[in-house]
Amino acid sequence: MQTITVELVSASNERSYPIYIGAGMLDQLGLILPYLPQKRVAIVTNTTVGPLYLKRLRMRLEDHGVASVSIVLPDGEEHKNWRTLNLIFDDLLSNHCERNTAVIALGGGVIGDLAGFAAATYLRGVPFIQIPTTLLAQVDSSVGGKTGINHPLGKNMIGAFHQPRVVLADSTTLDTLPERELRAGIAEIIKYGLIRDPAFFEWLERNMSSLLARDPDVLNEAIWRSCMNKAEIVAADERESGVRALLNLGHTFAHAIENGMGYGMWLHGEAVAAGTVLAAELSQRMHMISAEEVKRIRKIYLQAGLPVIAPNLGSERYLHLMGLDKKIENGKMRFILLECIGKAVIHAEVPAALLTETLVEGIV
Q1: Structure pTM?
Q2: Which residue among 240, 258, 270, 281 is the active-site one?
Q3: 15 has catalytic annotation
Q4: How far apart are CA 278 and CA 345, in angstroms?
Q5: Among 251, 327, 334, 347, which one carries the catalytic annotation?
Q6: What pLDDT digit, counting tens, does each position of 46-93 carry?
Q7: Is 146 known to be catalytic?
């Protein structure tokens, strides 16, 4: 087991929290007991993860004298909306869950976002715990407190910051993860190397085949290094007023892909891969990054079996959808671009002609 602490900036350390990473963490639930205000929790999961791990989680909690309520939601990004969120509220209310009843998210990023948003708003805020079961959730979405739902006009446009009290990442849950979902998670792992950790990027280039083969040591190392990077960024900028925006490398394009194609058609990590290649190509057109570095970026995503060409929604459609991005400030789109592999920057002055050229040549 490895432990990382998210050190949030505050008058005290009471809002800081641990991330526990390792094999068999679902059988180490004693670790979360100090973060439960009462011996009763509500577990939010879905129809895919529930049959695999819900019974086991409830039994382990019962071993520690903790009663639980189960809330099982439909699976898929297309269900990350108000209707599904209200299903959580319905169950929390009908089961008389109180302000000290912790909400546990058992699942991937969609479940974490939905359960976290419910926890942030139910009774004006209840304790929240993350038990991520997908690679993408373990390395990214379970850490940092971003919660929310999608809107037909934009991804994650409605939500709240609500930090978990503890994150429990059991790498053995990845044994049941479909290959496509594993690859999608790797897209977010690569991101950390690109924005701030060039040594990690080189490590990934050398170890990609082992990562895809789910080598336990390589997998745990990738999760640990990703969470270390995420924890440091969140600690420095909890509410994304500065450096945390760098975590959105490729996401302006990616969210447009997800929305334009219809939520769920492209997995988030697939859209991030194609979006990051577009961001790299835009960076090259702005003379910030070399052609050789763009080639390396395309190659590593291809190694991971991820798309490097975005779907052809038409450049005008892309520009419209990107105009709905959360990072817009004073009417200007802000892009996360690369100065080199290992250094990302925020750019608001992107020439329209170069952006259009990147879209026209980078989509099929």
Answers
A1: 0.94
A2: 240
A3: no
A4: 15
A5: 251
A6: 999 999 999 999 999 999 999 999 999 999 999 999 999 999 999 999
A7: yes
Contact by Cβ (8 Å): 77, 134: no
From the list 79, 80, 196, 244, the catalytic residue is 244
What DSSP letter does each residue of 190-230 carry, written as one string?
A: HHHHHHH-HHHHHHHHHHHHHHHTT-HHHHHHHHHHHHHHH
Virtual torsion, Cα 148, 149, 155, 161, nearest 10 deg: -10
User: Is 230 tagged catalytic?
Assistant: yes
Q: Classify residue 95 by its DSSP letter.
A: T
* Known active-site residue 255: yes
Give the model confidence (pLDDT) of 136-183 as tens digits: 999 999 999 999 999 998 899 999 999 999 999 999 999 999 999 999
State the residue for tokens 């892309």: 318
Any residues with CB less than 8 A from the CB of 221 and at least 6 apart, and which?
none
Token digits of residue 93: 């209310």
Nearest to 308 by CA among 290, 295, 291: 295
Q: Is 64 a catalytic residue?
A: no
Please indicate whether residue 188 is annotated as part of the active site.
yes
Domains in the chain, CATH or no CATH each? 2-176 (3.40.50.1970), 194-362 (1.20.1090.10)
- DSSP type of residue 76: S
User: Treating both helix axes as pointing N-terminal to C-terminal, what angle do 198-212 and 179-196 enclose, rounded to 10 degrees?
Assistant: 170
Nearest to 208 by CA among 315, 300, 321: 300
**56 included as an active-site residue:** no
The structure tokens listed for 102 are 């912790």
The verdict on whether 317 is a catalytic residue reads no
